[in-house]
Amino acid sequence: MASLLWNRETESSRLAGMDCLHIEDDALMRLLPYIENKGYSKIIIAADAITSALAGNVLLEKLSKAGIAAYETIIKPNSCGDVVADEASVIQLLLDVQQLEAEAVVAVGTGTLHDITRYTAYTAGIPFISVPTAPTVDGFNSKGAPLLLRGDKITIAAKGPSAMFVDLTLLQQAPAQLIAAGFGDMIGKYTSLLDWHFGVNEHNEPFLQSTADLTIEALQACLEQAQDIAAGTREGVKVLIEALIQSGVAMLQFGQSHSASGSEHHLSHYWEMEYIRINRRQLLHGAKVGVACAEMIKLYKQLAVQDGGLDFVRDPHTLRKLIEQLPDEDEIRSLLKQVGGPASVEELGISDELLQRSLREAHHVRPNRYTILRAYNEARGLG
User: Fold this and answer.
1) CA dist 77 to 49, 73, 151, 246, 308, Å?
2) Where are the beta strands (DSSP E) in 251-372?
3) First vs last Cα of the chain: how many Å apart?
4) Residue 311 in 3-state DSSP?
5) Distance (Å, rounded) from C-alpha 153 to C-alpha 185?
């Protein structure tokens, strides 16, 4: 199957403001020449204990042998054993960046490590380089950092990567649940795009067709290659990581995350904050998003078939037609099962009480975003 975005005249790296984007076998081998070409002499590698063993140590050794002053910061886990993008993690990395007087920082890991790194680089005023270790999220090339500040999930302006080195050999080694999480993050585009169209029609939110088209194309590519993604083949992980990056490019093109983050992400963030509050181990972001997408489709489909179920909106006819175009919740759950991910809140370990509470309150996570869930709750006096 052809690549999604990078064979076009407008390449993704230019759209994202990157110097280069390499998606290939042994892409890690291209990192040292890039750093030498940029003239960097002091580099920080940001990793956790797992990603350090996967790639961080290899990069550290290569940089050091080339005469570059390199240091690896192993981000410490919290009391539950999770590495989280919170104040403590950012400060840990920032202090090392300042002490070394680093000229660039390399994120080696998945979404959380990238969020920690991108905000640290933004604060320090230096570039950051992306080395994904698993195809888990669509935020690798984002310019916003979702951080936990005093337990609340807040997205803050940060820095996109100056370059990305996506090593397919490395990604194929990723655990199956991480690959399934990336697929879940892409499945969430069904409801994020629906919520976006709703916000445009009902609340005059801005819209860009080319951004929606890029997102739809990326989602469709994942659906067509679901079997290969489930098997973790080279082609499967290549299609998935390209789709995730393309979704990120679409957000960069539009300047906001409407195309990729709707009510399903609000539920996911709500669950994350709850788990932080009760000191419980975190769940994979994409796993939560996929299941939350199924829950939102379940609710939206129910409203669409109820007499007067959509009376809380100005144009229920248009919204009903949009909802009818979506697959039903069973199809979504079947896709999630196909790639080996959780397909229900029960499989995630989310209690029914937390699910019901999040359905009532999660729209408050992003009060500036106008979703169907928000309009529905406001009509019920829960705004």
Assistant:
1) 9, 12, 15, 30, 49
2) none
3) 46
4) coil
5) 17
CA distance 360 to 354: 10
What is the distance, to the nearest Å, from the Cα of residue 187 to the centroid of all Cα atoms in its chain? 12
Contact predicate 297/190, CB 8 Å: yes
Cα–Cα distances in Å, from 247 out to 8, 184, 216? 15, 13, 9
Which amino acid, 242?
Answer: E
- Which residue, chain included where needed, has tokens 């409801």? 191
Q: Please, are residues 19 and 30 in contact by the beta-carbon 8 Å criterion?
A: no
Report the amino acid identity of residue 310.
Answer: L
Cα(289)–Cα(151) distance, integer angstroms: 19
Residue 156 sits at φ, ψ, to 5 deg, of -120, 145
Nearest to 66 by CA among 98, 27, 93, 35: 35
Q: How far is CA 165 from CA 15, 94, 171, 245, 345, in A?
A: 16, 23, 11, 12, 34
Instruction: Fill in the amino acid letter for 283.
Output: L
Q: How far is CA 100 from its chain centroid?
A: 30
The whole-angstrom separation of Cα 262 and Cα 283 is 19
Separation CA 15–CA 366 (nearest Å): 26
Distances (CA, A) of 99 to 64, 73, 88, 120: 18, 12, 17, 13
At 4, list the tokens: 């999604």
Among 163, 178, 118, 161, smallest CA distance to 28 is for 163
Q: 39-68: per-residue pLDDT in tens?
A: 999 999 999 999 999 999 999 999 999 999
Query: Which pTM value belongs to this model?
Result: 0.94
Q: What is the pLDDT of residue 2?
A: 43
Looking only at the bridges linking them, the beta strands covering 69-74 and 42-47 are parallel
pLDDT tier, 116 (very low <50, low <70, confident <90, very high otherwise):
very high
Residues ≥6 apart with Cβ < 8 Å to 133: 51, 54, 55, 108, 109, 110, 170, 171, 174
Give CA torsion, residues 114, 115, 118, 120, to 10 deg: -120
Instruction: Tell me the pLDDT tens digit for each residue of 234-243.
Output: 999 999 999 9
Return all residues near 124 (Cβ < 8 A) that are at least 6 apart.
Answer: 94, 97, 98, 102, 105
User: b or e along 10-37 (b: 16 or more beta carbons within 10 Å of the residue's beta carbon)?
Assistant: eebbebbebeebbbeeebbeebeebbee
